[in-house]
TrEMBL record:
The keyword Transport applies. The lineage of its organism: Bacteria, Pseudomonadati, Pseudomonadota, Gammaproteobacteria, Moraxellales. GO terms for cellular component: plasma membrane. It is found in: Cell membrane. Residues 33-417 form the Major facilitator superfamily (MFS) profile domain. The keyword Cell membrane applies. It comes from Acinetobacter boissieri. Residues 1-24 are annotated as: Disordered. The chain crosses the membrane at residues 41-59, 65-90, 102-122, 128-150, 162-183, 189-211, 245-264, 276-298, 305-321, 327-348, 369-387, 393-413. PANTHER family: BLL2771 PROTEIN, INNER MEMBRANE TRANSPORT PROTEIN YNFM. This is MFS transporter, YNFM family, putative membrane transport protein. InterPro entries: MFS, MFS_dom, MFS_trans_sf.
Length: 420
């Protein structure tokens, strides 16, 4: 059977598997297609996550520019991740009919344009509406990307490729935050958001021309809601998947809560850091870029569960270190949290991809639903802890969530849901 050329149309992702003497096992490491897929997936992760989290270092700026409180300013991020969470579930259904590549391309391109709209927003309410819509549109990226990886990459290289995608998200999250801080210091937050929107649109174009055509996916015409509901219900009955969904909720809750309010802590006495200095804290994401990639290699040799525990222990230790009043210690603690987050997230998402044998897009969408609900719900609720108990209360919340996650993993191993 002949495959479509890479430039035929957005719907090239609907091509059927090639039939030959041996079953097609997916794109293998070392091939040209793998190199192109790696670059395109990295660009996808970079653009989508820089757009989502670019406002995080700007929360103190929003309190001054729009006259809102710290917890209210966090809505610029929480609304995005909240709408993203539910949009992801819908995207997994629509991508079955529209194709993987086309949906990811359109979602990323429109989100980049909405970021430019945020840059010229004259009011706080319009800003929140634009951020909410941006989150909803970006729902077409994460779950579909994870599904594409699970479908098209050779299973032997799945953890490694997922780690590469997570590394792209780490780089995007880091550069979105650091770049915004630097540009805000010398220009303004509006100019910074506009420039980021342009850069991400360019990444979107590069992604489209590099991503290889799907060979293990066949589109299902029309939207069969009964089919999708049954697929989600089936996954929610799987104890292994549900355990990973809860872990996704916890790991994101810990991460976003700490990073949301460390900016407020460092912008006030006794530190009173500038926007540029605060943005440098987000360079700790570089540890996530390395750790998520290495975690994939380590998991192939040691297993995912021990590596996942290592991730949560790193987050727990990091949160405790930030209780120190010394700035250097706070930076070290934040780096530990960032490293642990990307390790645990890479392992949990890999577990989902390998556990779900059918309807992988639906399984990934449910994981990301829980994942982003953690960001939206606990990320905003953490503002209450900050306002009433200061930094020790925020750290206490993170420690409690880390302990709950470790207990959940221990329980999963004991009842043989997880293998050690």
């Amino acid at each position: 059977m002949k495959t479509q050329s890479a430039t035929d149309s957005l719907e090239q992702s609907t091509s059927t598997p090639i039939q030959n003497d041996r079953p097609y096992e997916g794109i293998s490491c070392g091939t040209t297609d793998y190199q192109k897929a790696g670059i395109s997936i990295f660009l996808l992760g970079f653009a989508s996550f820089s757009l989502i989290y670019c406002v995080q270092p700007l929360l103190p700026e929003f309190t001054h520019a729009f006259g809102v409180t710290a917890s209210t300013s966090s809505l610029a991020l929480s609304l995005t991740t909240g709408f993203l969470a539910f949009s992801i579930v819908l995207s997994s259904a629509f991508s079955q009919a529209l194709g993987r590549k086309g949906l990811m391309f359109c979602s990323m391109g429109l989100a980049a344009l909405l970021n430019i709209l945020c840059a010229i927003s004259p009011s706080w309410n319009l800003m929140l509406v634009a951020r909410a819509v941006e989150g909803f549109i970006l729902g077409g990226v994460p779950a579909v990307a994870m599904a594409w990886i699970a479908e098209e990459i050779n299973p032997k290289h799945l953890a490694r490729t997922m780690g590469l995608y997570i590394a792209g998200t780490a780089f995007g999250g880091m550069m979105g935050r650091v770049g915004m801080g630097l540009m805000t210091e010398y220009f303004s937050w509006r100019v910074a958001m506009g420039i980021l929107g342009i850069i991400c649109f360019m990444c979107c174009v590069g992604f489209f021309f590099l991503l290889p055509a799907s060979r293990n996916f066949v589109a299902k015409k029309g939207i069969n809601f009964n089919f999708h509901c049954q697929a989600w219900a089936t996954h929610l009955k799987n104890k292994v998947l549900v355990t990973n969904y809860v872990i996704g909720f916890l790991v994101m809750s810990i991460f976003v809560t700490l990073f949301n309010y460390v900016t407020f802590r460092l912008s006030t006495a006794p530190y009173e850091l500038t926007q540029t200095q605060i943005s440098m804290i987000f360079l700790s994401y570089s540890f996530g870029i390395v750790s998520s990639t290495l975690a994939g290699y380590m998991a192939d040799k040691l297993g995912r569960t021990p590596i996942m525990c290592l991730g949560f222990l790193s987050m727990l230790i990091g949160a405790l270190i930030t209780l120190s009043g010394h700035l250097f210690a706070i930076i070290i603690g934040v780096a530990f949290v960032a490293t642990g987050f990307f390790i645990a997230h890479a392992m949990a998402s890999s577990n989902v991809s390998s556990t779900a044998k059918t309807n992988k897009g639906h399984a990934s969408s449910l994981y990301l639903l829980f994942y982003y609900l953690g960001s939206s719900i606990v990320g905003s609720f953490g503002g209450v802890f900050w306002q009433h108990g200061g930094w020790p209360a925020v750290v206490g919340l993170n420690i409690a969530l880390s302990i709950i996650a470790l207990c959940l993993i221990w329980r999963a191993v004991k009842v043989k849901i997880y293998e050690w």
